[in-house]
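Format notes (please read before filing issues)

Several people have asked whether sequences and structure tokens are stored in separate files. They are not. Every record keeps both together, in the order shown below: the sequence lines, then the token lines. Line labels are part of the format and must not be stripped during preprocessing.
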Amino acid sequence: MGDRFGTRTRLVTALLSRQSLGLLTATIVLVVGTTVTPPAALTVEGQRTLAVFLSALVLWLTRPVPYVVSSILSVTLLFVLGTVSSFSAAATGFTSTLVFFLLLLLLLGDATTSVGLDRQLARRVLTADSTPRRALRSVAGSVLALALVMPSAMARAVTFIPIVKQLTAAFELDADSGFESAAFLILGHVNPIASMALMTGGGMALVTSEIIATSVRPITWVDWAVLMLPPTILLYTLAALCAGLFAIGDEEMKMTTDMKNATQLETDGNGTTTLTREQRLVGIVLSGAVVTWIVGSFVGLPTVLPAVAAVVVLSIPSVGVITAEDIADVSWGIIFLIGAMLSILDVMEATGTITAVIDVLARWIPFAVLAPWQIVAVLIAIAVGIRIMFSTGSAAIVVALPIVLEFASVFGIDRLFLALAVLLVVGSTTILPFNTTAVLVSMDRGPLSHRDIASFGLVTMGLSLGVATVSWLVYWPLVT
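Then the structure lines:
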């Protein structure tokens, strides 16, 4: 009797799980969207495309199946339901430069981690200072410096977590001390902000630059650096200072003994203080790619070419840094999600679905009576709302930004400034732990609570709104 009751309970729990409900909801949305008569504003193809988009969105949010499966399914449905004339037309997003560029950057980031270059760089730029507060500033500065060569906030967080743990032990602080809390806020919340400084800094910047290039105007690596480097550094600095407020005053203590803990910090890990052959090769190749991106911005060289060359060099047998195992370990789910979303957006554009959605939203929200700054505030609020639902910023950007830019074109808002402002705000907003992988890891390995995550996420969002406003009104008009 008890076993039967337990089996029934487990069955009910499984049926009511988020994944099961998500799968059921996606199925209902798809069936309704493909069987009911479309409203006057939509064609049959447009309604079916919207149904595929909404069902895919539910699957991505609830994840009853892996991203790869749900992404392939959504593209296939575009063709099966007759929204396009061929499967190749349904999968146009996978031919985008963005998909290949993101794959290449992920491989380069993994190469940096696999050879231990990230840890070497962290030890070289991080010095063990005499007080926790100075050490906290060193951690913040080191994470920002490492972001210039490592396009992965997650990898940077994993690199610095053991260093923070060692510093906490060196200062003889409690595991839940203010110093450690502030450091983990930097690694979780503040660290991803650094990825927005360069076009090649991470998925969010790369997705935004591609959408800008296809929807607004061409943008080069140098253009991006000029537009985004100063605002990002300002936002990063302000957020790091706010995180530092968590370090309480009585932790301003001198390190004891003969700094043996600092020595341990600099030499632990692989036990070497000199770069290995693989580390030197990866460093040289990455430096060459950065130089080529800068030079290519002036001579019209496609940004993807230096990344291709770097990956090829690191993959040849005599080097062997990037292997088949590294390629297998790439985050294919995110790559397929972005490819599928771009494909859906192309079909939505072709069938007039986006225009119809904008018309409907315009009836609900009185955009016509709003001032331009109020329209911008509403559009950013829409983007933030979408951001909170996603586990990655790049996925939220690829969904929200095209819709927001369509509104901007209708109401005469500067689309370049709006795209950059949306990136700053979306990239700095983490309310739920799963919104950012770096935050999730920091919460798992550090002393942060759900309340800490949400409250500091609101702080960084507020700071990003302030920096975006100043950039829009003062800085971006000066450099464009």
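For reference, the curators noted about this record: Residues 249-272 have pLDDT under 50 and may be disordered. DSSP finds 23 helices and no strands in the chain.
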